[in-house]
Amino acid sequence: MDDIRKIILSTCTIEKEVQTLDGRWYQMMAIPYVKQHDNQNDGVIITFNDITELKKVQNKLSRINADHDTFIYAVSHDLRGPLANLFIIISMLKETLKSYSDIPFYEDTKELIMLIDKSTTNLNTIINELSDLAKIEGDIDLKEKVNVEELFEEVELSMKEKLLSSKAQINYDLREPVIEFSKKNLRSILFNILSNAIKYSSSDRTPEIWITTEKLGDYTLLSIQDNGIGISEDQQKNIFGAFRRAHNHVEGTGIGLYLVKKTVTNAGGDIELESEVDKGSTFKVYFRNDPEEGYVK
Fold first, then answer.
1. Which domains does the chain have, with CATH numbers?
2. 29-63: per-residue pLDDT in tens?
3. Which residues form the Histidine kinase domain (predicted)?
4. Angle between helices 106-136 and 256-266 (to 10 degrees)
5. Mind spelling out the 3-state secondary structure of 48-108?
6. pTM of the model
């Protein structure tokens, strides 16, 4: 009854899912009935669409996803103990080897230990990203008004070594100073895309990155453009898939951009890629502005 009164008074349209006592589900739509001769709201038209089978499929998919996420989380969690032991053993090997610098095959042994250390570190990165993958579906983070300039300063500081070693140049044009999003998730998105811009830079030129923000209707657009090696058209369609990689000449897990897309789309936004081989790539991230709910002041 409250919905009907609301429609009559405001001439709005209401859609909602309702469940009947027999367990069936319906998509209800209520719209105002307007008289043609005086253009006055004289009642409400209510329609019901049976969506019971759709709800069954949705519930089944939710259970499958939940089992999938639980399995990934359990596996990644159980691997952390043995992995921590590996790090300890590697550290002990490094310290022990220092006392035997004059033995035959010292350099070969040192190189092997470094390779083991590197592989173990890569495995740790994969486990961390698998944990993120398992948590992200159920992760609900409150939006907040994030000062973009301050956050970029934080991200640049955390990437200082990469930026210095690559001599990368970052140019800003922040026409929209605030992005409404979870700050920790936004930091992760920026770090991931900027890291890729440096990782996949061209050896023929100094890495250069252009970052812009602007308001587009109900969205805030963040564009990150680079002059790297680019991504072929065939690879672009799968670039946001899990464990998908466009280039294999540098190390990576293929999870990063998948996590970025899931984080953005779970919050009602979207991400697009424009790229040309040997020219560079542009990632366009659309953050939905919804000031009425889910905000931290």
1. 2-50 (3.30.450.20), 55-136 (1.10.287), 143-296 (3.30.565.10)
2. 888 776 655 666 667 778 888 888 888 887 777 67
3. 74-291
4. 20
5. EEECHHHHHHHHHHHHHHHHHHHHHHHHHHHHHHHHHHHHHHHHHHHHHHHHHCCCCCHHH
6. 0.57
